[in-house]
Amino acid sequence: MSEKYVVIDTETTGNAPKKGDKIIQIGAAVIEDNQVKQTFSTFVRPFQHIPVFIKQLTGISNEDVKNAPSFSEIAPELLELLENAYFIAHNVPFDLNFINQELIQAGYRPFNGPTIDTVECARFLYPTAPGYQLSQLADWLNITHDRPHQADSDAIVTAYLWLNMKEKLFHLPAPTLKSLISLAVYMDSDIGSLIKHAHTLNKHHTLSEEDGIEIYKGLAIKKLEPLQKKEQTSKENILGEKDFFSTDGMLARSWSDYEPRQGQDQIAKAVKKAFQMREHLLIEAGTGIGKSLSYLVPALFYCKEADRRVVVSTHTVNLQEQLMAKEIPLLRKILPFHFNAVVMKGRNHYLCLRKFKQLLNTAPSTYEEVLGLAQILTWILETNTGDVEEINIAGGSSSSFWEKMMSDETTFSEASSSWFPKNYYNRIREQAKHADLLITNHALLFSDLSKDSGFLPSYKNVIVDEAHHLEDLAAKNLGLEVNYLDLTQIFHKLGLMDKTGYFQRLMVYEQSVHQHFSSSWYQYREDHFTLLKYEVDELFRMLYQFCMKTVQTKQTDVGRISIRYIPSIELSSDWQVIQDSLKRVLVLFEGEANEWLSFYQHLSSHAPSGSLEYGLLYDFKAAVKEAEDVCDQLFALLMEKDENYVYWMEIDKKGAANAAYLYARPVDVSDLLADRFFAKKDSVVLTSAALTVENSFTYVMEKWGLVDFAPSVLQLPSPFEYDKKAKVFIPEDMAAIKDGEKEFIIQTAEFIYQAASVTEGKMLVLFTSFDMLKKTYYQLRQWDEASNFVVIGQGLKSGSRLKLLKAFKQYDNAILLGTNAFWEGIDIPGQDLSCLVIVRLPFSPPNEPVAQARMEKIKSAGGNPFREVSLPQAVLRFKQGFGRLIRHQNDKGVVIVLDKRILQSKYGMHFIQSLPKLPVVHKPVDSVLNDIAAFLGD
């Protein structure tokens, strides 16, 4: 099949051709017979000035285009190239709109031939690519890209990108191509005929062992290797642990880049002792020690010596992936024995092939669903795990599309299903049973403990990294949480009135095959379901109004109104009406659930095993169970009271009239952790960079219920030379927040702007209030009319924390304003970050329900809530925030604290003393700015 493809790239004066923006450069590459046969490139005279930011982006100046041909002069040559060709571009709508607008203005017809968008095609042909910008794809595929944002260079790169993609397309197995043909009709690119041609060529191809692909129930999937069994290791091989971290030890002999780090050997010995003596251990290890290797080595030796599994739990998926990508491969090369290390996440991270196949047979509901299905068709040819973190899917694991295909509790019920042998979730569970080292996350660890789900295989030894999150995550997983959206999404899945829902699709099957249920029975279901939905709407509307009318309402950091309540003690008439409404919901739901289950039981005895309907029945029953669980939680949240729990509700003041959120959390988790976690494990090692207050572990030992266990402790400072690498500045003449928030925000914004001029951006600003962040952001934007800095505000620019960090690193002169999530767990090494600004000391908001309830409990027991709860929490958070600055040995930077309380209050010394030994300077603002310039300029 000989085709002509013309790859076009344009550089322009802006983004809107209909508003007068013009082309300033065109690049083209002509592909025939799978080769670039011809190239074309020219500057284009736009008859207008090129904006400064376009000149900075492209490097194209007014001088470059001054004597260039007009578009009308080059149009005939361009049209000749495009004759009988596919128009290809990386983001076709942009380039084609400009080309067509210019063609029309020059008196020619617009191009209306077939188009292919390499962004769209890359999304489904390269589902695991890190991103879909041209430069990202070029780096990933090792395509040389010398001059990004120059049309001639971009066109050539896009041409080679297309050749790569076309080759991959024509090597896809026939079942994959057959499914893609169905999806291609919904795509923007005219790629359907190419996919059909590839399918014609491949449909008679017989897969061989070398292909590593198998066909299962019409899906082409990667043939997975047999599960590894746990290997027994002879005692002679378990040697070398004692000198592992020494200058001439096992690590140094095997790794040429190894540099011994102070404290690594101490951590390793402490972990070994804790495991051998069956005791718990607390380790505070400063940044740069290399604690991951320090605890992994003794853990792996212990696994082999004692023939026992060790679990490593992290707070973030990022750290899990770092361990598997960096530390584990290194140790596999060095250690004298084989070991199995498995990463295990919650079931919702794993693809369910049955549900995917089910969705593939249903008309897609959105364009994103079309691309998502196409992505997964390609991805299942490559993945060993089915883990959503591998795939660059729109919305990731939180997207509504992924929710339709992820593994859930139905997986347990599918043991007899013909899909079960190919279930990724089941496979990871089996792998975990044979793991020496099992790496998971805190959320799964505590979810497993709180629900006693048995998701994790049995273990007695666990290392909890990033352990400072322990209390909050335990409270969250032992708590309750329900909102209107949760319930309506479940109702949507049940689908009694939605054609894409489980019930409606099963009804079509039942009526066409069995006709056991009468039309009146179906009508009753619809009527009763309508009434149930109405009552649920009413319940949440009443909750919303109750929250609005309550005098003691307070606003949360993200702008919600929040009130605390006590379920069984609220005696107002409004609360009685709410409880009566809930009772109506529960009665209606119970009646309907019984009818739904009878429907399920009848069909499950007739639906053929392995059929589409058989799978739908599993999903329908799971949705009913999910709705039952939410109703049980609603009852607990609105009708029952646990003395150790705090209850509150939140509403969006500007949101829908039923947008109410209900929460319950344990106030004190110490007994729960002691009984359910520490008492049941032989040894728990808890480590973090911030566990001590005033050099004591007492605070965390008390709040985690560890005091009675008398754990061992180890505190190690960072090996970094903070006295040479960092300075803390506290401006003396800043406004105090107590003197007026408006003045404080103006001075804060002014200082940030001035300091950014000295540091050339590269600044992270940490807030404790989103409202203050937002006001500071808009003040900065108002002053920075010349756009000297790229100001990025968390919650004000769309994107996850990772996307915001990526944008921050991309620009040389960026200022990143962050709250909560940015105080910890982010790594911005080297020149990307030279200045950290802490706007206010990180005390928890006084109206935060859990913190408030904890302080009330301390006060009622005769204690001092500030000294026992507020201050130590804030000090630990301050240490975490400070840790964002110096991440590696060669980093250098300054920390500026704008909160005068650190100097003026009696407790301010606790924050300063929590830092490593380094210079702390308090001077007027002008002197501070001069000192920063001098320090960073050295």
From TrEMBL:
Residues 751-926 form the Helicase C-terminal domain. It comes from the Bacteria. GO terms for biological process: DNA replication. InterPro entries: ATP-dep_Helicase_C, DinG, DinG/Rad3-like, DnaQ, Helic_SF1/SF2_ATP-bd_DinG/Rad3, Helicase_ATP-bd, Helicase_C-like, P-loop_NTPase. Keywords: ATP-binding, Exonuclease, Helicase, Hydrolase, Nuclease, Nucleotide-binding. Pfam families: Helicase_C_2, RNase_T. HAMAP family: DinG_exonucl. 3'-5' exonuclease. This is 3'-5' exonuclease DinG. The lineage of its organism: Bacteria, Bacillati, Bacillota, Bacilli, Bacillales.
